[in-house]
Design a protein that fits this description.
- This protein has about 180 residues and is an alpha+beta fold.
- The protein has one domain.
- About 25% of the residues lie in helices and about 25% in strands.
- The protein is built from 7 helices and 9 strands; from the N terminus they run ααββββαββββαβααα.
- The strands form 3 sheets. Strands 5-6-7-8 form a 4-stranded antiparallel beta sheet.
- A hairpin with a 6-residue loop joins strand 2 and strand 3.
- Bound molecules: zinc ion (ZN).
Length: about 180
Amino acid sequence: MAKTYIVLTPNNQVNFSTTRAVLINNAHKIASAFKNYGAGTEAAYECVGCNRELPIILFHLDHIRSQSRYAVSNLGIKGSGGFVTLNSDLDKVDAKVNATGGMVTVATGSIYNPKIGYIQSSEIWKNDLKNLQLLCPTCNESKGSKDWVDWGRALNAAKPLSKVIKGVWDALDDIFA
Ligand SMILES: [Zn+2]
């Protein structure tokens, strides 16, 4: 069963602004270097599209597979009642995915207080860290709504944030294994 990695809010909701905020707040952990570009030392990152190194704050969050196509393919999560593993930066939960109904039922696990939340499946696809990577504005604008492969890159050249974060968030090691 394919796993989906997302960031949950404390209320078990999923939205792009939260995902973005968590990534920005952890930019120093994602950085490939720390340099002074003239505004003091800051986190830097090498664009996987053009290999230029820029301040990480300038990067866009790119959907490796475009949002529209990704939502249709469901990443192999097929049928109602399929279980996948979701997580936030510190907590993990089991999720029951209704892939056809457009809603996800989340039954929280270990660390969270047990309760049920509802998440739009479109938000799952949009926020899946396996499908998000950092791309410089030039590359992202060039890629547009194309899939990574359709943009002319091999899929194994993509650098999903689930992989980037793996080495630095120890709490996720057992999940990302
Ligand atoms: Zn680039």
